[in-house]
Amino acid sequence: MIKAVNIHKSFGELEVLKGVDLTVAKGEIVSIVGPSGAGKTTLLQILGTLDKPNAGEVLVNGVDFSKLNEKELAAFRNRHIGFIFQFHQLLPEFTALENVMIPALIARKDNKKTAQKAKELLAYLQLADRMEHKPSELSGGEKQRVAVARALINDPSLILADEPSGSLDSKNKDELHKLLFELRDKFGLTVVIVTHDKDLAALSDRVIEMKDGLVLLTAI
Question: Which residues does the UniProt record annotate as the domain ABC transporter (predicted)?
């Protein structure tokens, strides 16, 4: 599913990634762990086409990102990759349902079919009675489940999650962790998670440890 080879990334004189190699198999849930400043989020952003490496190559589903222009990268990202962030990134002026629909509408999918699918996803995530609520009317756990539904709306093959449970209490953390594995099995997803949460990392199929811009080890 993912192959990254000799990834380097610098911001000015600050070298953040120093030659990272990474492979992730289809259907795997992988956690990337390490101290703050290790380069975890930068690597995740490069895997998700949100940033470009200074050197190295990234392939997702056999597609070489270096061969795509900005428009093609945006289209690939929208259609094939779902994102879950620590702070849900919901648009406050829109309802839960509208927030979920946004990526599909950007992809110019049929409005009626998109609304129906968004409703089904929200119902599956136990938010059937919260669809017309705006983010300010939702709990932290509910907001993150809306964000999960939004990540799924375009039927991605890959989910990239950056500290997805970092802002949640213990109960909602546990529920979100279980949900990620349930969704993997239900939708055949590949999931890469950047996390400081040891419990979440322990549940993963594989843990990749980073430090100082390098992969130290990979553990099962």
Answer: 2-220
